[in-house]
Input
Amino acid sequence: MNLISAYGIQCGKEVFFNYGPLFPLINLLPVNPIYETWVIITCLIQGIFFYSIWSLVKNNDAKTREYTVGGIIFLLLISSSVGIENILVFTPIICLLNYHENDKARWLWIAAGVTSISALTKTIPGLCGFGAVVLYSIYRIITDRNGSWKIGIFGTILIYLTMWLLIYRDFGGVIGYWKGALELSSGFSTAMALYSNNDWVFLGLFVLSLVVMPWLLKNSKIWLLFLLASPMIFYEWKHGIVRQCAPSIASAIVFMYTFTLFIAIYYFVQKRRVTCKLTVILLPLIFLSVFYQRTYHESWLTVLQYSIFQPIHQMQRHLLINWPNKSKTLKESRRNVERYAVDKIVRDKIGSETVDCYPWEVTYIFANDFKWKPRPVFQAYTTYTPWLQKQNAEYHRSKTSARYLLWHYDHEDEPFISGKGLVEIDNKYLLNTEPAALYQIISIYSPVYQSERLILFEKSEENSIRRVIENNKYEAKWGEWIAVSTNPGEIIRAQINVKRHLIGQIRKFLYKDGDCHIYYKTDENEEIKYRLNILNASEGIWVSPLINKMDKPNDGRHIKEIKLVKSPNTYFEDLYSIRWERIIIQKRDL
Output
């Protein structure tokens, strides 16, 4: 995203991602052309966060002035230990609580401003912030209090649109930005979820302790806090805890640490005693931490230590190291990406022409100073849904797509990837990730250079392939082998449609989708297994030949049978439909 900012690429119009034009606030790198400005903005947002917490403490505790200096030092330490992403989440909530205390409209404007910044930084936290504003507005309507709460909703929309106009000079992409974010979010629980064994005891205790906490604390303001934080709590549950990968759950622990800390402060300044209720407040964090430790065999204290000290270390690095030594840091960044430098023949071939990288490593752009022309969803593994892959397919079909496509293989050291060649994250087969876009790639691009680590494709004016789709659909059972009929030189794909029961739709929304795999059987009766994103299977999954490199896509291991297997309790219908398609490559010389 720092490259997107540096290249002036418009989110929602040219690319679709979970992050927006203000992404450097979360992950700022010296490569950004206005690095110093971002550091200043980050410091200002942290200052607003501290001011909002301090004001809330003063509003709830008449004795605050007796220990003003100590209180300021304590809250400065607390606010410094909160990462910028959680600051963007909690600041609008704290501002709404401040408005609830004193009905001063400035808090609604601050909440609207920070929510707009959050929405342009990372879509889901921004959406959760706006959800908090809407929920508070509904609460005020029900309680029949004065109407200045409307500033929250309309102020957020006004500031958001104004900021978008200042950044991009037009409103193009405003709708696409959110459409793309919702597609990425909805497809995440199918395409990216893991399915390790759950420790249901501690996970259940975490959920139970979190649900009963406001009941046990018996405090109306704590109830309001839970109401405003509920969108973000659901997000951390759905995309953090439920996904079941260690970094995602660690992120949820960091969020729970911040949430627990704020509940303790908010409750303490109202009651002036917290000893008897402290256990109630800490239990969700404790149960989630134990769940993490038992599941991933890594100490939760390490995660908390990282969450407390990492934001302080990051800001120290920005202010004391990177800023004063930006040119030196930039040279260090250049050295770190030297392994992504391509051969001279590739650089000479591309020259000043546009280029895109496939499947996801855009560091090649920065390392070689290429002219980047990204496809809308520029990391293949994030094309979770048919709508997302359709955007890429239309891009490749257009006259404005990149002249060259740099297809790299050197991802063996990436997390969640096992194996070499065309293997993808979480053991998926790369050619099944975005079938509609892949068809356009092999149709339009031809290989012009290859090495051990990459293949360079060049765009051709002529369509180099022909596709035949059978009219008849066949029904098949899960776990049943299906014979594959092939002819020499053909590529066989299968358009597969799966339907869910209603309970399966509910499970997908509240928890995650069922797990699916495809098994390939070769002529030697060897069975090869890959995970399958069933959402995109209707566009045509790759069947035969099974290849490991893209220079000769019609030359690989012949597959005589396939079968689809689902995990228990997936709530798919017993039968799925399948329609064969045949692709004939007319010319493919390297």
Summary: The two ends are 33 Å apart (CA to CA). The longest helix spans residues 35-60. Residues 414-419 have pLDDT under 50 and may be disordered. Residues 270 and 296 are 38 Å apart (CA to CA).
